[in-house]
Each structure stands twice: as C-alpha cells, then as structure tokens.
Amino acid sequence: PKLCSAIKDHICRLKRFGTGDVSDQSSILHMHDIMDDLEEFTEIPDSFCDLPHGHYPLTITYRKFLMMLDGTCQTSFFDAFYGEMKSSFERGHSRSRAVHTFIELKEVTYEKFATSYWPRFNADLTKKIAASTVFTEIISHIKGAYQASRPYTGKLDRQDYVMLADKRISSLNNEMRDRIYDIFLEYESMKCTAREFDLSDFVNSLHSSLVSEGYNGDMVDFVYIDEVQDLTMTQIALLKYVCMNIKEGFLFAGDTAQTIARGIDFRFEDIRSLFYTAFLAETEASNEGLKHGKRVHLSDMFQLSQNFRTHCGILRMAQSIMSLLYFFFPSSVDKLNPETGLVHGEAPVLLESDNDENAIMTIFGESKSKHGNLHGFGAEQVILVRDDATKKQITDLVGKQALVLTIVECKGLEFQVW
C-alpha cells in the first residue's frame, strides 16, 4: 500500500505538471497511517464495470485488483462464505467492509500456515522439510502454476506435480514431492473444515468464473506491473482478461533477488512461457494475434544494471550476497549483470551487541533522553525490521520518533542512508 500511494503521488504531480501547474504541492504520504491494503482504496469501487474516468490512470495494489475482478463477476468468491459474513451485515457494515473483515479472519497466510496448520500435519510427512518450502510449493506450483487453473480444478494432480522434479532444476526429488503433495491434501482438508481460504483459492475461483461467465468490465489499454516477482503465474494470467493489447500493452518490472512475498517461487523465464501459452496462444487462436499474417512476438527482456539511488559500497555488499545465491540456488534466481552506481561510498557498518544489550536503546536511548527526540531521523529515514513482531518491539521503544517498517512495507520506497 505504501509503494502504491507513493506512485499515486508521483502521477498526481505529473498530471499537474502537464496542465502547467509547476508548484511543488505534492500530496503528503503519511506512511505511519497507510497500513491497510484494502482500506487505502475505499474511494475506488470494487468493480471494473463503468468505472468513472476520474479514477484513471488506475493505481492499485494487486489485492485491490482481485477485489475489483470479483465485483465484476456475477458470482462472487465470497458468496460461499455469506453465513460467516452475515453478522457483519447485521451490525450495519457495508459489504466491502464485511468482506475485508472476513479476509482478515479467514485467509491462510504463511504465518497462519506455519503456526496453525504445520504442527498438525503428520510428523512422518514433515520430517526434514521446512514449512516455508511446503507453503511455496503449494502456492506457487500445486495451486499457482498456470496449468492449475486449467481445466480450472485449482490444482495440479499428483503426477504432474511430481514430474516437475524432472522438468525443473530443484532440490526436491520425487519422494519429497510425493510427501509434499500428501501434506497439501491434508492442508486442503483442514482448511475446508475450518472454512478458511488462501489467496490461490481466490485467484483460481476468479479464473473459473471469468471462463464460464466472460469478462464484462471495462478494458484497459496498458498494464504496468511493478514487483512482478511477488506474483504467481495464475495471478499474472488474470491480467489477460482486462487488456487485449497483447503486442505492447504489458510491462513487467521486478527482480527475483527481491522476492519477499511468502510462498512465491518466481523466474522471468516462467513469465515468458506464460505469455506464449496463456496470452499469445489463446489470442492467436481467435485470430486476434495475427497482424498482416505475422505472429506477435514478445519483446526482449532488459536488464537495468545502472543504480541511481544506492552508492557503490552498498551495491558491492549486495553483489557479494547475490554471488552466494547464484552459487547455492542457481535455479531460484535470475542471474543478472552486477549493478553499478554513480556515487562512491563505504560498505555498510555491521553492529553487534552483547546478549544482554539492547542495540536500539544503546543507539537511540541517550539521544532521546537528552534531546526529547531521535536526532537525525526525518521523513526520509527509516528503521527496517524483519517482521511485525520485531516492528512492535522497536515501535514500543522509539514511539513515533522514527518510522519503523517491515521489509514488506518498505518495498519500492526510497530513504536516505543514515
């Protein structure tokens, strides 16, 4: 949501500049308050039907895109859960708010999978396999591969999934994939009993509805996707329904080394294959992909190796980490040319504290007690943490004197080096 809001701010400034307004009256990005993916877009209807022109260019998160597709279909994915949402309707909440509340309670994220589901699986199946590995296989391959949405069963069958061991370079052999598929079946049974769902259920339901009903919403001419590496193939394939400009209507930007979404196993070669099988092939089958007797071909991929926002010291450290990823996980990361910077700088400083020492209090405690604030921490600086639990701990210490974000929340935003 924060990245999306930042992009919207830049678009607003560009539109003002286009009308001759050169004043620097950019909207203020209150990053302390932008915390919710769906609440941030309440002014945009949950439907692509007759969307007012004032909302274009439409700048939304992928989750908002899913909600709008769902609202465009005659049958909503959430209709099956009407009983669970009925109490919210009775309390006077709108459908949008009721659905949002339901998602918070019933969606199986990685955190819920690891804490609520994983301990209940057969121990013989989970032996020597990490919960994160299984979740990634379920979300990205068993339920997230494009084949899983055709013929819209929502999953690969066991044989097709196990055969991936031969088709895709992976550390998972046939025996391990068999066990993972057994875990998947247990997971689906538990999830059904609990009346819960994961994002792949939502996505595959949309595929099924759009095939059976057709898409009756507004069409767009161009689709620009940033951080595409955080999406599965079935999620990307939904874009074909809203844009028919196959030749030049899609632009995808991302970096597999920056994949932060749990359960995602992404490679750019997979998205190229997806375009040939899901976009070009289906379009050409209806004779819309043929232009003067010539087939439409995908453009080349471009590597943007010039970094304009990070100094060389940080880039060298990042490249050393990437070298390890290339060596130990060659099939998981697209190998790119090393990034180069325009500004020289020192390598980042690594601070190590004693076991009984709180590094945050050591660094900021004295400054706060002497000056009443954290001197030097402004709107362009941030404390980055791994997860929400750590964020709460740090926020309790520093309050609102400094911006504290998780890696997920800060994705795509820029801050000054401190």
UniProtKB/TrEMBL annotation:
Gene Ontology MF annotations: ATP binding; helicase activity; hydrolase activity
Keywords: ATP-binding, Helicase, Hydrolase, Nucleotide-binding
SUPFAM superfamilies cross-referenced by the UniProt entry: P-loop containing nucleoside triphosphate hydrolases
Annotated UvrD-like helicase ATP-binding domain residues: 171-260
Protein name: UvrD-like helicase ATP-binding domain-containing protein
Species whose genome carries this gene: Aegilops tauschii subsp. strangulata (Goatgrass)
